[in-house]
Amino acid sequence: MELTFDISSGDWNQLEDPEQLVCMAAGAAFDADGFDATDVELSVVLADDEFVADLNQRWRAKQGATNVLSFPVGEDIAHGDGEPRFIGDIVLASGVVIRQASDAGKPLATHLSHLIVHGVLHLLGYDHQDDDSAARMQALEPAAMKLLSLPDPYLEHEETAVAG
């Protein structure tokens, strides 16, 4: 897996090694799904609420920031031999994520790991638009978290459930 990583908000500085955390969580999501990510590239941006609110309005016609947005490519982008296949972007809002983690009494790194797992699963085509789809996706999230030796996000603090 190749990761393009950017931190555009200083609020994320409270994490010790956010790039490593993101890489581990993304890898766990791929592993939980059984997806071979050897030849895959994704982009993760740790942004502020204003940036995410703008994206949320522009692409989903929804007001305000949400914790995580995923933008799957949806189809293969042509790439050269030996080049990874780009599958999409994940963008997270610092204020929302930090507030959710604090409100739930969870470490920020744990909550961010869950949201990265959630975002990667969206890039792989999972969603939660109906009960069956949500059940499939929510079965993989705890499996990925277990690979990271982290707790099941759905057994603790419902208020940190992902928004979309």
Structure description:
This protein is of the alpha/beta class. It has 5 helices and 4 strands; from the N terminus they run E-H-E-H-E-E-H-H-H. The protein is globular, with a radius of gyration of 15 Å. Residues 157-161 have low confidence and may be disordered.
| pLDDT < 50 runs, ≥5 residues | 157-161
Summarize the amount of helix as a percent range: 40-55%
Strand order of the largest sheet: 1-2-4-3
Straight-line N-to-C gap = 24 Å
Number of strands: 4
Mean pLDDT across residues:
91
- What is the N-to-C succession of helices and strands? EHEHEEHHH
Number of helices: 5
Q: How large is the radius of gyration?
A: 15 Å
Helix/strand structural class: alpha/beta
What are its keywords?
single chain, 164 residues, alpha/beta, four-stranded mixed β-sheet, 4 strands
List strands and helices in order, with pairings:
Layout: E1 2-7, H1 18-33, E2 40-47, H2 49-60, E3 68-72, E4 85-93, H3 94-104, H4 108-123, H5 131-147
Parallel strand pairs: 1-2, 2-4
Antiparallel strand pairs: 3-4
Helix pairs in contact: 1-4, 1-5, 3-4, 4-5
Q: How do you describe this structure in short?
A:
The chain has 164 residues and is an alpha/beta fold.
